[in-house]
Every structure is written in structure tokens, then in C-alpha cells.
Write a structure and sequence with these properties.
Blueprint lengths: L1 H9 L3 H9 L12 H11 L3 H9 L3 H10 L7 H10 L3 H10 L7 H9 L4 H17 L5 H5 L2 H7 L5 H15 L3 H15 L4 H14 L2 H11 L1
Helix pairs in contact: 3-5, 4-5, 5-7, 7-9, 8-9, 9-12, 11-12, 12-13, 12-14, 13-14
């Protein structure tokens, strides 16, 4: 673990750290390492559940990103998911952990439901970042499992916090691109949200509606059916 931290520190830069700060990554917890370099290190380290836990415990942004890449999905427990999720303090770590690790665990759908009811900003965002990741990566689950999550999306769309509503939007659009059936159901949700008198759900609905009814999405769904 010490060698990995030393490697990250050597590959960091003030310029990258400042750029990260502009995107909401706390500069005091980052070395300033580009994502491609973190991925390179993770590939070199290989899968290692114990190492992932040690890297996460450092609290450093890049160490936690690498932890997500090297952890073993089959060994990730619901308790670990909750602990890591409580540590999320920016969208970068939240989305990366959901996108490359949590969505590969058998506990993912349960956490979507649980976290969608939480108040903490990045825990709630994690619910929908995780749902979006599942929609993109899960090749086994049927439409019904995703359709059952749409009421969670519709309810959370009223949350005005920027990181939450963007996560909700991502999830709705990702589910709606998964199949023709889910597209129809997601479009129905988007239409209701777009007609809302409240700004946050209206923003989510209009953006999703624009994408999910576009010619590009319709063409993609048609080719997938074929």
C-alpha cells in the first residue's frame, strides 16, 4: 500500500489538483493524478480486496479511486458498501465507485432502494449513479427489475440539490436507453416530470424527454431489437 501511495504522489501535479478542485474534488485530499494514470496503476496492482481496504482507509482521493478498481466485487459486502458510501464527499469518487465496482456486486439493486431514501447528498446521488451504472452494465436483469426503480427516480427528482438531480437525470436516461419497453416507461415518467410546476423535476423531465425521444436513441433501440 505504501508503494502505491508513493507512486500516486510522484504522478501528481499542482495543475491537475487545481483542475480537480474546479470540479469539486477537495484539493486537500488529492495529489492531482490524472484518471488514466490511476487506471494504469490499478491494472498493474491487479485485484486485491485487502489492498483496496487499505487504500480506501487513507482518505486520499486517488487512493480511493484505485481501491474501486482493484477491489473484488464478489468480496464486497453490504456493510462495506454502506461504509464507503458514507465516505463519499464528491461526485467523482461517488460515480467511479458505483460505475466500476458496486454495480458488479449482488447487492446493487438493494442499495439503490435503500440509498434513494437517504438524505445525505452523496449517499442519495449514489443510489442513482448506481442505478445508471446497472442500466449500462447489467446484462442479466430483465426490464421489470429496472422498471421497479422508476418510482424511486420520479420521487427523487424533486430534490433540488445539484448533484442529486444530476444523478437522477443520469439514471432516468440510462434506464430509458436500455430497451424499447423501458424507453416507453421512462418517457412516461419524463413527461410527468416535465409538466411539474417545480423547477427540479421539470429540469430532469425535460432533459430526459429530449434525449429519450431523440432519433439517435430510437435508432439504437431499433437496432438492438434487430
Amino acid at each position: 500500500m505504501d508503494e502505491a501511495l508513493a507512486w500516486l504522489k510522484r504522478h501528481g501535479s499542482t495543475r491537475t489538483r487545481e483542475q480537480m478542485a474546479g470540479f469539486g474534488i477537495p484539493p486537500g485530499k488529492a495529489f492531482g493524478v490524472p484518471m488514466k494514470d490511476m487506471q494504469q496503476l490499478a491494472k498493474r496492482l491487479g485485484r486485491d480486496h485487502t489492498l483496496a481496504a487499505a487504500l480506501w482507509a487513507t482518505g486520499q482521493y486517488e487512493a480511493r479511486i484505485v481501491a474501486a478498481y482493484v477491489d473484488v466485487p464478489e468480496r464486497v459486502t453490504p456493510g462495506q458498501m454502506d461504509r464507503w458510501c458514507r465516505d463519499f464527499d464528491n461526485w467523482g469518487i461517488c460515480d467511479t465507485v458505483c460505475f466500476v465496482l458496486f454495480d458488479r456486486t449482488p447487492h446493487a439493486f438493494a442499495k439503490v432502494t435503500q440509498w434513494s431514501r437517504r438524505r445525505e447528498e452523496f449517499v442519495k446521488r449514489a443510489a442513482f449513479a448506481l442505478l445508471a451504472s446497472l442500466a449500462l452494465h447489467d446484462k442479466e436483469s430483465g426490464d421489470a427489475r429496472f422498471a421497479a426503480c422508476l418510482p424511486l427516480v420520479e420521487k427523487a427528482a424533486a430534490d433540488e440539490r445539484n448533484f442529486v438531480k444530476k444523478g437522477v437525470s443520469w439514471a432516468l436516461r440510462a434506464v430509458g436507453r436500455r430497451s424499447a419497453v423501458l424507453n416507453a416507461e421512462s418517457v412516461a415518467v419524463a413527461r410527468r416530470l416535465a409538466a411539474s410546476p417545480e423547477a427540479a423535476p421539470r429540469w430532469v423531465g425535460k432533459g430526459a424527454l429530449r434525449e429519450l425521444t431523440s432519433a439517435a436513441v430510437k435508432k439504437g433501440l431499433k437496432s438492438r431489437r434487430g
